[in-house]
Amino acid sequence: MKFLLLLLSIFFYTCTQAQDSAKQKQLPAVRTVDIPKIDGVLDDGCWINVPIATDFFEIRPVPGRVEAKDRRTEMKVIYDDVAVYVCARMYDNKDSVSHELVSRDNIGNADFISIILDPFYDKMNGNGFFVTAAGVQFDAKYSQVGDEDPNWNAVWESAVKIDDLGWTCEMKIPYSALRFSGKDIQNWGLNFSRRIQRSNTQTFWNFVSPTVNGFINQEGLWTGIKDIKPPLRLSFSPYISAYANHYPANIPGVKNMTSRFNGGMDVKYGINNSFTLDMTLVPDFGQVQSDNRILNLTPFEVKFNENRQFFTEGTELFNKGDLFYSKRIGSIPAYSNYSEIKGDDKIIKDQTEAKVLNATKISGRTAKGLGIGIFNAITNSMQTEVEDANGNLREVETQPLTNYNILVFDQSLKNNSSATFINTNVLRQGSAYDANVSALLFNLNNKGNKYFVNGGGKMSYLRGEETSTGYSYTLRFGKQSGNFTWSYNQVYADDKFDPSDMGFFTNNNFLDQRIGFGYNIFKPSKWYNEWQNWFNTSYSRRATPGDYQSFGIEAGSYVRFKNLWSAELDVNYDAKANDFYEARNGQVYKAPENFTIGLYINPNRAKAYNFGGNIRYREQELFKGKSYNFYFFQNLRLNDKIAFGLDLNFNPNYNYVNWVTSQGSQAIFSKYDRRTVENSFDAKYTFTNLMGLTVVLRHYWSDRRNKDFYLLKPDGNLTDYQGPTLTGTDRNYNVFNIDFVYTWQFAPGSTLSLSYKDAAETYDTFYTQRYNKNLSGILASPQNNSLSVKVLYYVDYLDLKKKHKKI
After folding, report:
1. CB pairs under 8 A, 24+ apart, for 303-307?
2. What pLDDT is attached to residue 609?
3. Where would I find the DUF5916 domain in this sequence (predicted)?
4. Rounded CA gap, 328 and 318, in Å?
């Protein structure tokens, strides 16, 4: 009965809030002649008699509640032929305003104010401009499904002031940072958002309901914008960089110390009102943060995060269908050929990454909602230097000159729906094979955006000495809005489908099905602010033949408490499975059932010192294998400029069983103990909102200590191994990295960066089971040290034109 009353109260509460907040707000556009000085002081005459956007609605902690009067927000927006101007007054106790200094495109422990614009008013795509109370800028692009792309960057102005009434902000957003039509009279989608960090309160001018799927589709309206014309959007960002690198190879003929000097340019050009060309010529990615490498004992590759800005900024169109893994371009190529390296050859220098010669993106969306994306990149060939038995040196081409291309057509439909065609194509010089993948995708929502159905079909085609054509499809439907949600998902791939040449790929030949349920409560109670619950079950079979693969159940609950701490409890059960990949030879392995339970605790991060972590336990049926994971983090903020973070992760495994090696066609498994320890330390000192330095230190150690060996039988079970003694199968892997970066934005869009990197890696070198000995060992091993400086200068063609006229 209590549960029924709770459901009824939630229902009536939701209905009441909808009546108060569901009406779309509108703000009339005001053209200005006088230009405000962007200094954060709201004393310019142009702000007088401008309509005020106020009475913001909370999205958290109480969705739909109107902001408190003593913390109210007042926004004004004006425009001219050049830009949109924003002024904001955030009422508050000035001593309570959070204003931590962090680097650009980060928020940190700070209050913020933002404006979100949808110039085409398609309720699918928008641009957000955020400013923290410390004056730090953050900008992002929003796609039709509500995803935030923080890698998108624009050049704009802002300033803030903290005063006795709270704090203020002014912005100037030039039209060169936006895409819009050339109509004489326009209406733009508009919303404002504010966060008060200490109470974790976030408000929107036009209410954004957490029970409704999507974000941009819940915007307000800026009406009556007259006689503005899209400017010529053309900018250049030339750069120069210099590197000094030292690695103690101590090999005759190979220098320990090397240096290089680079130069190149990024170009942005607005082809028309809707489309933009982004091009990078001879790019330099040497200063991006190092990958977090690990000891991988699975049959599949590890997926790393992309840190190169060109491949993360404005790529939402190219990411549709999960066919684009940008690390394939230069960093982690799918194809390499070492067949010309003979058994008695010694590798002197192996080029692990192909240099990106150039890359180009053209993307945009027409007034009728057709999004078009074209991506092209060329990587140089990779050469490996080897020495034969007679001491002769030669170079072997391990990867040819390669061209990567993506073409996307994405048509927006009613109700935040879309239909998409995407094609990826990889062309390699010479006899190496080429690859092509095409997909037709759809995403359909009903009028209230409550129910959905999406999916698509994909086809891969590999052409070389042998050709191969594979197929895959996805179908998903369910309820996506409201407190109660559900979905059904089915994914099929035949045994020839292979998108790995430009996408991330693990395996094919499967028919997976998944049913999920969720129940979320967004109305706060006496002890929580938000409560989310979910239950999912999955079932997988092979496509050909139709053998059973796996069955699993997962359930969880997440609660955000009144004190702003949060907790999550997850439970997972995996039944006995037929694993066709672990043996590495196509043979089935009868994988045992597993049970996992995990508890995650997150603190109130507004506190100067905060800590949290998780505990996870996993039990494997075979040999009573056990796995523990203890993760602990802590953050200390000494003041608004200095902060430290420490992450500790300890993951011991006992009596686990996996593949370890092969003897001819026979797969050998082992029972082993494994210990993984990962420690990461980060620190930052931010001088101003335009200058700061960060340092990240990471040590990762993981081993594998085999105890017993087993032979995999034809029926998929294990039997005691009786063959020759197996040596060299233990593992002891260490990685150590230091990334130190100093950045200074010395002019809008222009940066100077100084980077120091230290990297070391040891493999199959067994020091000891003690952590401190492994740390000492990796620090004593050969270190790769590099020091680099890079200067990038932003040049806007319109600014050059203005300066030329003055002369």
Report:
1. 303/504, 304/331, 304/332
2. 96
3. 230-803
4. 14
By percentage, how much of the chain surpasses pLDDT 90?
Answer: 75
Structure tokens at 283: 């790019």
Task: Spell out where 748-799 has E strands.
Answer: 750-762, 784-792, 795-796
Question: Given this model, what pLDDT does residue 314 score?
Answer: 79
| pLDDT tens-digit readout, 460-477 | 999 998 899 999 999 999
Q: What tokens does 759 get?
A: 């990297």
* Cβ 75 vs Cβ 88: under 8 Å: yes
Pairing of strands 795-796, 566-574: unpaired
State pLDDT tens for residues 117-157. Answer: 999 898 888 999 999 999 999 999 987 654 788 888 899 99
Per-residue pLDDT, 766:
66
Q: Is the pLDDT of residue 15 over 60?
A: no
pLDDT band (50, 70, 90) for residue 767: low
Query: What confidence tier does 781 reach under pLDDT thresholds 50, 70, 90?
Result: very high
CA distance 375 to 280: 12
Alpha helices (H) in 625-717, listed in sequence order: none
**Lateral strand order in the sheet of 393-399:** 346-350, 382-387, 393-399
Least Cα distance to 277 among 339, 309, 225, 233 occurs for: 233
DSSP state of 9: H
Q: What amino acid occupies position 2?
A: K
In this structure, what token pair is assigned to residue 85?
Answer: 């101007």
What is the pLDDT at residue 16? 40
φ and ψ at residue 89, rounded to 5 degrees: -120, 120
Calculate the alpha carbon distances from 117 to 38, 149, 150, 190 in Å. Answer: 20, 14, 15, 5
Residue 176's CB is within 10 A of a number of other CB atoms, namely 23
Could you tell me if 570 and 598 are in contact, meaning their C-beta atoms sit under 8 angstroms apart? yes
Write out the E strands in 380-526.
Answer: 382-387, 393-399, 402-413, 417-428, 434-445, 451-463, 468-479, 484-493, 510-521
| Contact status, residue 358 vs residue 280, Cβ threshold 8 Å | yes
Helices (H) and strands (E) in the chain, counts: 3, 44
Give mean pLDDT, residues 750-758. Answer: 96
Per-range mean pLDDT, top range of 36-45, 279-288, 310-319 = 36-45
Cβ neighbors of 515 (< 8 A, separation 6 or more) are: 486, 487, 488, 489, 536, 537, 538
Token pair in block for residue 19:
């009546």
Least confident segment among 11-15, 72-76, 624-628: 11-15
- Three-state secondary structure readout of 97-144: CCECCCCCCCCCCECEEEEEEECCCCCCCEEEEEEECCCCEEEEEECC
DSSP class per residue in 394-430: EEEEEE--EEEEEEEEEEEETTTEEEEEEEEEEEEST
pLDDT band with cut points at 50, 70 and 90 for residue 17: very low
State the burial class of residue 292 (Cβ atoms within 10 Å of its Cβ: 0-12, 13-18, 19+).
middle
How far is residue 631's CA from residue 419's CA, in Å, rounded to a whole number? 42
SS3 449: coil
| Distance, CA of 420 to CA of 227 (rounded, Å) | 33
Torsion-angle region of residue 135: left (phi > 0), alpha (psi -120 to 50) or beta? left
Average pLDDT, the chain: 91
CA distance 431 to 194: 57
The pLDDT value recorded for residue 146 is 47
Q: Whole-angstrom Cα distance, residue 650 to residue 632? A: 9
Task: Yes or no: say if 128 and 112 are a contact pair by the CB < 8 Å rule.
Answer: no
State how far the Cα of 96 lies from the Cα of 799, in Å rounded to an integer.
40
The answer to whether 135 touches 106, Cβ cutoff 8 Å, is no
**Inter-CA distances, 415 with 14, 216, 218, 444, Å:** 22, 12, 12, 8
